[in-house]
Amino acid sequence: MAGDDRTAEATELLQALIRNACVNDGSADSGHESKSVDLLAHYLDGAGLDVERYEPTPGRASLVARIEGSDRSAPTLMLMGHTDVVPVTPENWLHDPFGGELIDGEVWGRGAVDMLNLTATMAVATKQFGAEGFRPRGTLIYLAVADEEAAGTHGAEWLVEHQWDEMACDYVLTESGGMPVRTPDGIKRPIIVGEKGLFWFTLHVKGTPGHGSQPLRTDNALVKAAEIVNRLAAFRPPAHIHEIWRRFVEGMNFPLELSGPLLDPDRLYEFAEGLPMLGLARQAHACTHTTFAPTMATGGLKHNVIPDRVSIAVDGRTLPGQDRDDAMAMLDEILGPGSGGADLRDDVEVEVVVEDPASASPIDTPLWDALQRATEAVVPGSVNVPFMTVGGTDSRFFRRRGIPSYGYGLFSDRIGFDEFADMFHGDNERVDVESLRLTTELWDVVVRDLVG
Predict the structure, then answer these.
(1) Is 355 a catalytic residue?
(2) Confidence (pTM)
(3) Whose C-alpha in 25, 107, 109, 397 is 20 to 30 A from the C-alpha of 94?
């Protein structure tokens, strides 16, 4: 298949995946990823692939396609993309978030960046391998998985626990690095080799009900919740310069006025607050600090009732080496008198919703070397650097089993790093067709290199 044909197929498949609107709001009956599994199964049909479908929860389907290798001693590579997307506020978008429109060389829609572009290009490359009769020494697995956007319960976690024989591999490629970053000594492209831990929790703030017309000296749960939200926003734990962050900064070869404070735990926070490059500032802070972001609040009964219970959802992300005790100690500090306010610990019940430690993969692997060779072949002059994503991916389920798992793709310089980063779970998500071409070619080169 010619490169132009592959790019056209990737574009059309991405548009169709976006239009399926597999929105995952975290509930078991959301997502409906079976729609995209049906689409992908139809697309891959006739290419000579071994295709299986798994659906542990009605509507929450995942698809596995594979090409068996001829040599059991050769490595198995998994290309893993998810099919679900996060919810959207349509009125904030310039174009229909589920229209999948192609506008000025860019495909618009929820999931275009996170991560349907990779899911589509992986499918196109896999279909080409099957159609051409590719018989590698190693095995190639393509996994289109459900439920990545809500902790993987109905997707990768279930598959790894219940279908390991089908999931077993030596390396995993998934989301989402490869954005070009211009530096004084050339273009650097991050490979995601690790991710922060998940520590999602809900704070149930207790109060005493009363009449809303008499607010004086009431025990108002909403007022206490507002204070807690402010404390969460103001919390400043110490910076931690871990190995992945150090290797990223050193690999980028930043000038000393950047690299100095970025590697100094005593200066990093203030430096990031004043850094004009917003994308780098946010990444620098999140990569080196435990974070607690209040994301939702619910409570109260009606306009004229003092609320006796308010719940605050908090997205907590922990650093490598931290566990539940570390996170709870920080939360205790936030709620206690050490924050400068009243001691609210007895007024709050903590419900841990998701708990998963940070994970990382080694860098000195054949996959890392193959990615650098493939990158150089497709976009000459680019150099890979290790990076840690501050979001969560399904890589962690494989890292638990000792499988090196990286996030990568190849993106053009049409969309800048800051803008690209803002589109993850943000408004006006889109990806350019040139990036689809580059990434499809990347999969072709790296698969032939590593397992061919």
Answers:
(1) no
(2) 0.91
(3) 25
Kindly state the tokens that stand for 258.
């950047």
Q: Give the span between the Cα atoms of 34 and 427, in whole angstroms.
A: 25
User: Which residue, 110, 89, 100, 85, is CA-closest to 33?
Assistant: 85
Which residue from 362, 388, 372 is spatially nearest to 442, judged by alpha carbons? 372
Assign a CATH topology to domain 197-237+290-356. Answer: Alpha-Beta Plaits (3.30.70)
State how far the Cα of 227 lies from the Cα of 229, in Å rounded to an integer. 5
List the one residue out of 167, 163, 16, 24 whose CA is nearest residue 82. 24
Gyration radius (Cα) of the chain, Å:
23
Catalytic residue selected from 9, 114, 148, 157: 148
pLDDT digit string, tens, across residues 169-213: 999 999 989 999 888 889 999 999 999 999 999 999 999 999 999
DSSP 401-421: TT--EEE-----SSS-HHHHH
Domain residue spans of the chain? 3-183+359-450, 197-237+290-356
Helix, strand or coil for residue 16? helix
Looking at residue 92, its amino acid is N
Cα gap 241→99, rounded to integer Å: 42
- Per-residue model confidence as pLDDT tens digits over 26-77: 999 999 999 999 999 999 999 999 999 999 999 999 999 999 999 999 999 9
Q: How far is CA 275 from the centre of its chain?
A: 24
Which of 9, 33, 84, 147 is flagged as catalytic? 84
- 427 among known catalytic residues: no
> Tokens 């990076």 sit at which residue?
387
Question: CATH homologous superfamily of domain 3-183+359-450?
Answer: Zn peptidases (3.40.630.10)
User: Token digits for 240?
Assistant: 């931690």
Q: In this structure, what token pair is assigned to residue 367? A: 């996959």
Phi, psi of 333 (to 5 degrees): -65, -40
Which residue bears the tokens 């807690």? 228
